[in-house]
Amino acid sequence: MQIVDFEQKGRVAVVTLNRPEALNALNYQTMTELSALIVQIDRNPEIAVTVITGAGRAFAAGADIKEMAGRDVADMYLNDYFAGWDAFAACRKPVIAAVNGFALGGGCELAMMCDLIIASDKAKFGQPEIKLGVTPGMGGSIRLTKAIGKAKAMDMVLTGRMIDAAEADRIGLVSRVAPHDELMTVAMEAAETIAGYGLPAILAAKEMVGRALELPTTEGVRFERRLFTALFATEDQKEGMAAFAEKRPPQFKDR
Ligand code: CAA
Hints:
The protein folds into two domains: 4-195, 2-enoyl-CoA Hydratase, Chain A, domain 1 (Alpha-Beta Complex), CATH 3.90.226; 198-246, Lyase 2-enoyl-coa Hydratase, Chain  A, domain 2 (Orthogonal Bundle). It has twelve helices and ten strands. It has helices at residues 28-43, 65-68, 73-78, 83-89, 106-113, 140-148, 150-159, 165-170, 183-195, 199-212, 217-230, 235-245, and strands at residues 4-9, 12-17, 49-54, 58-60, 95-99, 102-104, 116-120, 124-126, 163-164, 176-178. α1 (28-43) runs parallel beside α4, α5 (106-113) packs across α6 (140-148) and α10 (199-212) packs antiparallel against α11. The structure holds acetoacetyl-coenzyme A (CAA).
């Protein structure tokens, strides 16, 4: 049975992790379906933005502990058990995590692979792996530290404590918090706003902000300048600036 649901709403893909009986625990099948789907979305010219959420009371309560429990080091290492998540994180189009409930361990790490995190006011975040005798394994130690800094990341990773949406907002882990019942409306509004722009600028914007976390400042500024300059070869740049001068809405063509 399929775990990951997909629906296209205009230029927005809505992806739902649908294994609520296990709090959407991220098993191998979920990773495989989700990474294959995101590659298709990336290649689909009709989709500009993805919103990912979870069915039931969790976004995702982590990697599937029951599936991992019996594995040994050779199995984990040689089969590169989490490799599919790198494919997910490599998506060039923006992905919005609409975090509807628990985002723990791999669930928090999945949210952090996304570009915007919009959290329900009932959402809970945490990296509780230490309680299982392990550590974050899907990028949490690095993405969390870059997102919220050492002091808060150490607190979450070493104590394994859960934080609520208000704290996540205060420490900069999430982009916005929405009332629980309005979560998908707020996430879709953000997605549609982004999807209303031209894809060349959307991709460039995502890429340059992503690179900002990896590059020294001078290199990052150069990288930004190269992409900014390249956008002057697009019809969308001509249209966007002409529309401003003519006081009319732009008609972007993704060209
Ligand atoms: N893996 C497998 N199954 C999980 C799961 C997980 N990560 N999280 C929850 N489930 C299952 C439970 O086993 C339970 O199944 P059964 O009904 O068959 O027993 C079902 O989902 C509902 O969960 P609970 O009964 O535990 O629900 P609760 O409301 O009492 O507690 C919770 C909710 C606090 C989130 C609790 O489920 C929990 O602590 N889950 C584990 C969280 C965790 O440790 N995540 C990290 C996983 S390791 C990891 O992610 C590694 C990495 O970095 C990649």
